[in-house]
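Figure-free illustration: sequence to structure, shown twice.
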Amino acid sequence: MKKIGRQEFDALFNLHYEQMVRTAYALLSDSALAEDKVQEVFIKFWEKRESLNIEKSITTYLKRAVIFHSIDHLRKAKKMEEHITNHSNVSLNLSLNTPETELLNKENLQAIYDKIEALPNKTKLIFKLNRFEHLTYTEIAETLEMSIKSIEYHMSKALNILRKTVFGLLFLSLLEIN
């Protein structure tokens, strides 16, 4: 990549900023947060501009960087939320379930999460964007620059795998009850 000076960077920023904010907003649903994430991507771009090896267009590079930076933020936020939820559940301990059924429910839920994490990377990403981030197939297709048919294929694949897991766990739970 050719050396980018301050004027070229400013022009690049002005040209792509709004589009990148819209991309981040599609994932984050928070305009201030979307702007923060885009600014962080541009800061990293500026800091690493001399060592970057951009094979495709700068627009594609920036868009993917914004997508991955936004997804990384969501992942960290979700972990923090889970930590807070788990901590409050432990401290409150208001469950009406028996310890055995509570343990079984946690094990089943963990098995489902493990199965989600074991999905192929692209299938897992698409599934999480749809089910956890509530993006439509169209929004996912635009964000990942894929066809809607590809998104449908990956969702179908993920749901079939998870359906088998859930039915297996349900069957085992029924056996343990009897």
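We now fold a second protein in the same way, so the two outputs can be compared directly.
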Amino acid sequence: MKYMTKILFLLAVLPNAGYTQTAYIDDYMRINLRPQPDQASQPIGVVVSGDKLEVLERRDRYVRVRTMDNKLGWVFDKYLNVVPSAKIRLKENENKLAQLREELDRTKQALGQAMSTQAVALSPVSTKTVESKSSSISLLIYWFIVLVLSGTLGFGAGAFYYRHQVERRLGGLRLGPIL
């Protein structure tokens, strides 16, 4: 029994050793940073929404954290969130949107330049290649239609044959509209 309690203690302590997690204060809040994990201790500082905190330890409903300016203290766990605040996520997404818009504009410009150079480069020889491509596409469509029609006819013939075999096994009993 003595070994069992030691093993359980080690299993409870070891996963927390050397493991840190980042947490953020929820949106629009100011919470007290306390030296002890209780409401009776006087606050040693304040953390506000969007502050990045390093989680060091958890005890009951309190979490020991380190702020970005290296202050250590305890905060109530219900105010922490592992997802950054909406204000931070909004700024990040606005930056990504601006980058994607710039990339889209560059791509549009490159496409416009490529289309203008292609229009100048067209000659009677290149129109023949366009015509041959369109004829190969129409040929591909023709064979696709033939394949679909033959598959449909084969399926229908198989269904009728299956119905005929079932009726034969049942001694001429008509199955009706089911099969």
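Summary for the second example: The longest helix spans residues 124-169.
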